[in-house]
Design a protein that fits this description.
Four Helix Bundle (Hemerythrin (Met), subunit A), 151 residues, mainly alpha
């Protein structure tokens, strides 16, 4: 029952996010809200994974794989919203330099997506040491992007 509720919640969020993307960000504020929404959902699911990796929650292979799948699905969504002119101002922590280096953002976002894909593959198996190491690689890719692009 909980997994059905989780799936429905993810689908609702996707509907909202896709609707926002379809609007093509008519205002910079729309792009900021869109990317922040995606990041909040990813961070939530990543936090659930982190609790298992750190031993704060019991490791549940199915829950881990399910949360990883959500992150993998979302991992391609927020990047275009970072490149909307004017979206470096207002309620955001994005540095203005992101708009001047779209290739740098693309490279970092692709690395993140690759690492998340590897985590998703590892999560389907039972080798917790591999899962833990790959979780660390995903966390490092987050840190690399935030370090370069966040105020």
């Amino acid at each position: 029952m909980k997994s059905i509720v989780k799936i429905i919640a993810v689908l609702v969020v996707f509907g909202i996010l896709i609707g926002a993307a379809m609007a093509q960000f008519s205002k910079p504020e729309d792009a900021i809200k869109y990317r922040q929404s995606v990041m909040i959902v990813m961070a939530h699911h990543f936090g659930l994974l982190g609790a298992m990796v750190k031993g704060n929650q019991p490791y549940d292979q199915m829950a881990f794989a399910s949360n990883t799948a959500v992150i993998e699905t979302l991992s391609g969504l927020p990047w275009e919203a970072f490149l909307v002119p004017g979206s470096d101002r207002g309620e955001t922590t994005m540095k203005s330099s992101v708009l001047k280096d779209p290739d740098g953002l693309k490279s970092l976002s692709q690395q993140f997506q690759i690492e998340v894909g590897k985590l998703s593959a590892a999560a389907k198996g039972n080798d917790f040491d591999t899962i833990k190491a790959q979780f660390g690689a995903v966390a490092q890719s987050c840190k690399n992007c935030h370090g370069k692009n966040r105020k």
